[in-house]
Design a protein that fits this description.
The protein has 480 residues and is an alpha/beta fold. Helices cover 43% and strands 11% of the residues.
Length: 480
């Protein structure tokens, strides 16, 4: 049984959960892109136990919400479940982020349960440039100028006013929002910009502070392996990666390349190739930690500790996690090529990467010594990639200025909002960029990223159940 579970976990690592499309069939995906996609997938799909009548609908949105002279429009997709609708039903909107929306988020889970209690209408909006809500004919850098969180928030504002104006039963309805990860950030920022349109919101795992060099992320990933997998597992990761780094540094690159099954195109004398490789290795562990539940980390640690030496253990785990290809394409050039391929071939990886360069940073680097993943993936890897993929103006200064402007626009750690319930997993690598207990957020012990969307159930920890019940009580107050 343990072996079967590990195989299933490996499939999750390779393909992720919550994606409607597997782009790897269309074009070979370099491992850096593959691992970054895995870290930016949608919230866990909910287990649907009964059929809900979810309808797919479309709304006309302006291409540029802030330029009256631009009359271009696009069609934004949304899903709606009106099975509980009655006169005056509250509107429960789950905001889509950098992923394709799907029916389970409005068919099951805690959000659905609360909507049922209040006879609410459930809606799931799709973010511009993701899923099927594509406003432009290509994803060129010029066309991506209309991809910005301010545009996406304005889309949501227009959606709310339109939905209420076109449905007599909902004309005076109260609106509540929910989101996970980036879309949780959107919940907070929507309440800041459009406080009168919603009475409250739930933000699960919301990063609030934009930051170029996000060193804290890998620290929390390491802590998750230490606390849930034990010191021996942590040491194996740290020592194995250090040994691989040492092989490359001491002219034993051929040995390391063979161990890692790297394609012949890999150049271990090229810093960008080495950074891409070690960034991808660390991201395998990040994916495990970010979405861990139950005994996930223990199972992976058991696998790592089944090998005789540290480096072999790391090499085998990442090869498995990357899908067991004939050879591993970890070159920096292939990553650039893939993102450029995404100009004409729509792929969710390119628009989100653009948003990191243009708004947030959040580059999960090896800049801290308090993590076990080595020293070979500085934030410079990611900022260099911005310039090579989008435009030469995306240098360090330009990216840093963009990130600073985001914090000015939205208040960073002080967004100044009311009636937004923020939750984080205590072992979520994103939580250092969000509110903690001191700021009124709830940290759920041993939980990770976007882990609290499921219905209240007997298997919930005491902390998880308490958080869900607190949210349900807040919802009753906001909708009273």
């Amino acid at each position: 049984m343990a072996a079967i579970r590990l195989v299933c976990l490996a499939i999750v690592l390779v393909l992720g959960v919550g994606h409607a499309l597997d782009f790897s069939k269309a074009k070979d995906v370099p491992v850096l892109v593959k691992t970054l996609k895995n870290l930016n997938r949608g919230p866990p799909q909910q287990v649907v136990t009964k059929r809900a009548n979810v309808q797919e609908k479309w709304i006309t949105q302006k291409l540029d919400n802030f330029d009256d002279s631009n009359t271009e429009t696009y069609q934004m997709r949304y899903l709606i479940n009106d099975e509980f609708q009655t006169d005056g039903s509250p509107i429960f909107i789950y905001l889509g982020g950098e992923w394709t929306i799907e029916q389970s988020m409005v068919s099951a889970g805690h959000w659905y349960d609360m909507a049922q209690e209040h006879k609410g209408v459930l809606v799931y909006t799709e973010h511009r440039y993701y899923g099927e809500s594509i406003p432009t004919t290509t994803m060129s850098t010029e066309n991506l100028q209309y991809l910005h969180v301010k545009q996406a928030l304005a889309d949501v504002a227009h959606f709310i006013t339109t939905l209420k104006s076109e449905n007599a039963q909902l004309a005076n309805s109260k609106v509540v929002l929910a989101g996970g990860s980036y879309s949780a950030t959107m919940v907070v920022w929507f309440k800041r910009l459009y406080p009168d349109l919603v009475v409250g919101g739930w933000a699960s795992s919301a990063p609030l502070l934009a930051k170029v060099d996000f060193t804290e992320y890998k620290e929390v990933v390491g802590r998750a392996f230490l606390e849930l997998g034990g010191q021996q597992c942590y040491n194996r990761i740290q020592n194995g990666i250090a040994e691989l780094e040492s092989l490359f540094a001491n002219k034993r690159g051929a040995e390391a390349r063979a161990m890692l099954r790297l394609c012949n195109s890999f150049d271990d004398q090229n810093d960008l190739d080495l950074w891409s490789l070690f960034g991808s290795i660390s991201n395998v562990f990040s994916g495990i930690a970010q979405y861990q539940s139950g005994n996930d980390i223990n199972d992976y640690c058991d696998y790592l500790l089944s090998f005789r030496d540290d480096a072999t253990a790391i090499a085998n785990l990442v090869y498995w996690a990357w899908g067991v290809p004939s050879c591993i394409d970890a070159t920096y050039a292939s990553t650039v090529e893939y993102y450029l391929w995404g100009v004409e071939n729509f792929d969710a990886g390119r628009p989100w990467y653009y948003q990191t360069c243009n708004e947030y940073g959040w580059y999960q680097s090896s800049g801290s010594r308090n993590q076990p993943f080595g020293t070979k993936f500085p934030a410079t890897l990611y900022t260099t990639l911005c310039g090579d993929v989008f435009n030469s103006r995306y240098g360090n200064e330009y990216i840093s200025n963009n990130v600073a402007q985001t914090n000015v626009d939205f208040g960073g750690m002080e967004p100044g909002v009311e009636n937004v319930y923020m939750t984080h997993g205590a072992l979520d690598p994103w939580n250092p960029m969000g509110h903690g207990v001191a700021e009124g957020a709830t940290l759920i012990a041993n939980a990770s990223h976007c882990s609290d969307f499921g219905s209240i159930r007997s298997t919930d920890s005491a902390e998880m159940r308490a958080s869900k019940e607190k949210l349900a009580e807040l919802m009753r107050e906001w909708l009273a």
